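Re: Re: token formats

Sure, here are both.
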Amino acid sequence: MRLHKNYTVEMNPDGSFSVDDVVPGTYSLSIFARINSGNPWAQPPLAQGSTTVTVPDTFSPTTPIDIGEVELVPTPPTPPGGTSSTLHSP
């Protein structure tokens, strides 16, 4: 069984971000770029991308993990009066 956990973070001006309390393992990281409206889920994403990240057993919380560059692809706009939805398969 796979566990699913969501983290909401803000990017720093240089594109970096941090997530606390992640245990060692391999993760699928999905990034959604949204307009900061105070509620991260109020607007559909402008762009999105994903990558795999491995947190090693020997990880030190004071040492950042470089995940490299993640390409964000523009999300098609939602038609007026339409709804936006995302479907994830296991």
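Second one below.
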Amino acid sequence: MFLKKITLILTIAAMSQQVHANQFNGNVKLENSAMTDVNIEGSADLKNMTMRSLKINGDVHFANLKVTDKCTINGSGKGDDVFCHDIILHGSFTTQNLRTFSMVVHGNLSGNDIAITNNLIIDGALDCQTINVSGYTQIYGEMNVSGSTFNDIILTTQKSTITNSNAGNITIKAEQNHRAAQQLILKGDTIITGNIVFESGNGELHLDKEVTVKGQIYGCTKK
């Protein structure tokens, strides 16, 4: 019995050391490893890494990162081949081949080949090619996308451009302290299956001849 207690204590101690080992300070570079919960106070360069959760207070560079739970980054950076359940970014981010359930960005998001199975919220600009969002998309800034698919889109923007893409309803929220007309530019073979609504009543809708809008259009003049 005494031996079992010692073994249990040693096991708990070993587990504690493992968790403690996943706390890093300073500039960190990790490669080719699997970990549980990782916290980094400083910049991070991660390559071929798998973990349960990740929190970084610093700028980042990812290559082939998999996080099965939440990924929180308080900093800017770049990440290619990123697979996370939920991503929260406080900073601008550039990516190629990103897969996630939901994503919140307090900054600009740019890149290509992005798939989000739930919602996307950006307090900043979106500049992407081939982004697919199954939930709703809400952007407080300029949107410039092509070759993409969206459900409903809510924009607070002065000017946004959608090219060769599909979307449901598009709502352009009124901007305070801006008197100029808000512009939505639809190009190429873009198809909007729902309504387009400018809540300010002072919108400009620019349509290429190939564009299809299946719903109603409110609050704007067509250009």
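The mean pLDDT is 90. The chain has one helix and 25 strands.
- S.
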